[in-house]
Amino acid sequence: MPCGTNICGGYYKEPAIILSCSSPGDIDAATTTITAEHTVSFSATGTSELAGNINVTQPGRKISADKALLYRDATSHEISQISLLGNVHYYEPGKHFVAQTVFVDLQQKYVKINKALYRLAKPSPRGVLNAWGQAECVIRKSDTDITLKNASYTTCSPINQTWNIIASKLHLDREHGWGEAINSFLYIHDRPLIWVPYFSFPIDNRRKTGFLFPTAGYSNTNGFNIGLPYYLNLAPNYDATIVPAYIYRRGVELETHFRYITCNSAGNLNIEYIPYDSNFAHFRRLAMTDWEVTPQTIPFIDRLERASDGRGMLSFTDCTRFNQHWWGNLDINYVTDDYYLQDFAYNPFNSSRDQLLNQAEIHYASDNWRFLGRLQTFQSLHPINQQPIFDQYSRLPQLYLASDYPEWPNHLAFQINSEFVNFERPRDFITGDPKMTGQRLHLQPSLVYPIITPATFFIPKLQLDGTFYNLQNTMNQPTQQSRVLPIFNIDTGVYFEKDLGCFKQTLEPRLFYLFVPEANQNNIPVFDTTLPPFSFAQLFRTNRFVGYDRLGDANQLSLALTSRFLNSDTGEQKVRVSIGQTVYFKQANVCLTPDCNNDFYVHKSISPLVGEVNYYFNHDWNAVGSVAVDPEDQGLNNASLQFHYRPDPGHIFNIGYDFVRKGDTLTTYQLNSSQNNLNRINVALAWQLNDHWQALANMNYNLSHGHPQAYFYGFQYDSCCWAMRVVASRIVTAENINNLVTYQTNFYVQLQLKGLGNVGNSDPGNLLMSSIFGYQDTFRG
After folding, report:
1. Contacts of 207 by beta carbon, 8 Å cutoff, 6+ apart
2. pTM over 0.85
3. Which CA distances in Å does 641 have to 58, 177, 348, 535, 770?
4. Is 17 helix (H, G, I), strand (E, B) or coil?
5. In sequence order, what are the beta bridge partners of 606?
6. Residue 341 DSSP label
7. Which residue(s) pair with 605 in the sheet?
8. What span, in angstroms and rounded, lies between the C-alpha atoms of 538 and 516?
9. Which residues, in sequence order, are bridge partners of residue 258?
10. Which residue, 13, 21, 540, 591, is most buried by CB atoms nearer than 10 A?
11. How far is CA 523 from the centre of its chain?
12. Which residues on adjacent β-strands are paired with residue 487?
């Protein structure tokens, strides 16, 4: 929604006397001023009568009328009651009543308003949401308690009433933030839609135990579904939502969502369970006939046949801070079978779609020391309709300890990194053969002598890298392995700046020399080490591998140049361009595998030429790009280019392209197949068409495989009192070795009657925000 757009076509302006006081207080407590322009019949003991533009005012309260009657208490002779007649206007902060008569009882502290047209304001994420209607009788007992009899209620514009509620009784309790309707009809454009004997609804942002609006949805794998959420406001810092649901093709499902926040911790617990999934039971029965029985498929078929028809999922996260130095994290995820995420909870933007993380962490941090203790394992899923995957190594445990002393004598700095990991892994899923496991100890002390000035830096660093293994299931290889090597590097650079008037240009040349002697590491296992795509940051790393199982041999010099243009007045960056390359004085020989098949940089004299650019065309447009080109084989190693256009929150357009040679980790095609390349384009759009309509779209297209990986499209309509969002998504849930793709189609439909709540199926807000960079979910506004 563009800033400043008024979708209601107008606004309500409070009188000045109302704006001067946020809370008028009890009606009998404040000083009361009564004025009249015409005749006044005054009585010190009986009834006084006033006529002509009557104004009864208190700080934050005003009542105007054509006529007023003032009644006095028989004992104290003080004014105890006031009757106002004809063209009565009653004002308080957030309240306005127009009525035939108003009766004010100062002793009983209540106001009775007859034949009234009312307006009430409630807070919302976008400011103020106005509710209005008519009532035969309104009783105001306090600032926070109002009862309306034979009344209507809506948040729509008075000139465009899309919906309203007509009830025998409406009770608005502002102290607790909820309203109640008894014997009510919901009307859409003056036509009754539904009768409800009783229901409650929010009048501000506070929570209340009770049923929420039903949810409904559709997907091609599950059919139609409907749920009835029940919200439990258990305490100010924790709550729960229980959702019994019926899924047409599967059966009855129960979902439970629990969340909590304490002084030191916060967490979420989500549980889903289907006692009997009829569609999954049918899928299991057909497994023997639909899939050919071979040595490769038997493990999948056996595992599928052993799966239960009762299916579910559990997810639990917790973050707790124990004191200033210690904190812990917990992340638990579990599904009952290999196909649950395909059928119910698949996230198209989660690359680890077949690996469910389970880990517990304990952290410590002080000025000089850092510690991490971790227990980490994965639930690996093996669907028969998907390409085979490898089980991940578990870390049971992983212990990391590091220290940093930057101010040793003689300007030296001392650092040490150490890690111990016990790697466990189940037997091979297909063959049942045991996999190599073991313990790894890594120690890396270092000495640094930094020389830094405002315009230069010269930082030599000497490290000793030691890695030691105690292995099991080694297949006749030695069970004890070790590697101890020195690492020496010098990082140096210069900073130049030139004033160009409106801009300042910087020139930042940088040299990075690295020496690591060669050692044969073919007998050392690869537990958690990978070779990342070559990038600009790779020019300045001391190990071209990520992980401790390999230490790349090196005698090389990296040359890089960065230039930036900065606004002279604000320092805001206009453009940043970097380019660099590494010259190998000695060709690298260390690889992840002895054959070096997946290593692009081994046996070469120069690295890929890498470049990065970040350019802000203006405040609306910016582009971010990177590229790595191998000059020896004249091939593209990796590339990324992203354009972002966002002139305001209502107009967003993003387009991006990513390429990494042999970078698709989810495929197992032939080694030199182009389908192993990560080669994708992504287009995203959130575009305000006018004051009410917004288009939404995203497509992630896999160019290597020739099909969309995930896409959605839809629209959002927003008006003064109601909003609607419709989104259809289609995502890849499985892709087998024959490149046969299985899709899941979902439809999200949401209808919001502002001031009442949402009707629809699962909220697509998280999907939109994670896939459209810069999108802000204002649907609840």
Report:
1. 231, 233, 239
2. no
3. 64, 49, 21, 14, 18
4. helix
5. 583
6. I
7. none
8. 15
9. 240, 269
10. 591
11. 43
12. 463
User: Who contacts 360 (Cβ-Cβ below 8 Å, separation ≥6)?
Assistant: 328, 329, 330, 331, 374, 375
Contacts of 457 (CB under 8 A, 6+ apart): 450, 451, 491, 492, 493
Q: Token digits for 47? A: 């009834």
Q: How far is the C-alpha of 164 from the C-alpha of 147, rounded, in Å? A: 17
Distance separating alpha carbons of residues 516 and 589, to the nearest angstrom: 12
Residues 604 and 618: beta-carbon distance below 8 Å: no
Q: Are 616 and 575 in contact (CB under 8 A)?
A: yes
Nearest in space to 733 (alpha carbons), one of 723, 741, 722: 741
Q: In 3-112, where does DSSP find H-type helix?
A: 16-19
625 Cβ contact list (under 8 Å, min separation 6): 612, 613, 639, 640, 641, 642
Beta-sheet pairing, 40-41 with 456-472: unpaired
- Strand partners for 635: 630
Residue pair 640/665 in contact (Cβ under 8 Å)? The answer is no
> Which stretches of 369-494 are DSSP H helices?
none
**Bond from prior residue into 24 cis (ω within 30 degrees of 0):** no
Please, what is the Cα angle at 271 between 265 and 273, to 5 degrees?
A: 175
Omega before 214 within 30 of 0, i.e. cis: no
**What are the Cα distances from residue 713, in Å, to 220, 684, 699?**
16, 10, 8
Rounded Cα–Cα distance for residues 470 and 484 (Å):
15
Q: Please list the rounded mean pLDDT of every run of 10 residues in the chain (781 residues).
A: 60 70 66 84 84 86 90 84 91 88 87 90 67 90 83 86 90 80 89 86 74 78 87 91 92 95 95 94 83 83 90 96 96 93 65 81 95 96 83 94 88 94 91 90 96 94 96 88 96 94 92 96 92 92 95 96 91 92 93 83 88 92 93 83 92 93 60 69 93 91 85 89 86 68 80 72 72 78 46
Max Cα–Cα distance, the chain, nearest Å? 114
Tell me the C-alpha distance between 301 and 337, whole Å.
12
Q: Are 22 and 38 in contact (CB under 8 A)?
A: no
Per DSSP (E only), the strands in 633-756 are 635-648, 651-660, 678-688, 693-702, 707-718, 722-735, 741-753
CA dist., res. 654 & res. 658, Å (int): 13
CA neighbor of 239 nearest in space, from 254, 258, 211: 258
Q: CA-CA distance, 220 to 226, in Å (whole number)?
A: 15
The end-to-end CA distance of the chain, in Å, is 10
Encoding tokens for residue 728? 């259809």
CA 476, chain centre distance (Å): 49
CB 308 within 8 A of CB 322: no
Q: Are 356 and 333 in contact (CB under 8 A)?
A: yes
Query: Which class for 6: exposed (0-12), middle (13-18), buried (19 or more C-beta within 10 A)?
Result: exposed
CB contact set of 76 (below 8 Å; sequence gap of 6+): none
Two structure tokens written together for 230: 């029940």
